């Protein structure tokens, strides 16, 4: 049996601040603010091995995903919300509803070997694209985390890529 991924969630997704933040995140200005905060969040996550995140007080489950750049061959690290499913983590390439897929998804398609930092651990993983038949159920779990994902999907015509991450 594959060991389960650790889980580190702090804050609450049901408090007033979290509910307001989730509504704001679904707006275009909210998405812009989150994209602007991403470098700060990446720095906090890197310094704490993903124990803490800027979004932690609102109960956002965030990991650091490090892929290998498909063109550069260099490590590329991105903070991402995830759905925890025991021995599998799911991540979605929403890119805040922008027209293009996020670069990390193309990196995983080119090389599925990556590293996840979660709850103070760095864990090698292998990514697989979630089949279309399973995507809707998994995407619904992202919408449970924050309704902003529904807004992101409505903003774009592209098919959002969802990956399953499992220990390598």
TrEMBL record:
SUPFAM superfamilies on file: FMN-binding split barrel (SSF50475)
Catalytic activity: oxidized coenzyme F420-(gamma-L-Glu)(n) + a quinol + H(+) = reduced coenzyme F420-(gamma-L-Glu)(n) + a quinone
Source superkingdom: Bacteria
Record-linked InterPro entries: F420H2_quin_Rdtase, Split_barrel_FMN-bd
Pfam families, A to Z: F420H2_quin_red
Coiled-coil regions listed in the entry: none
Alphabetized NCBIfam families for the sequence: hi_GC_TIGR00026 (TIGR00026)
Family indicated by similarity: Belongs to the F420H(2)-dependent quinone reductase family.
Name assigned to this protein: Deazaflavin-dependent oxidoreductase (Nitroreductase family)
Species for this entry: Nocardia caishijiensis
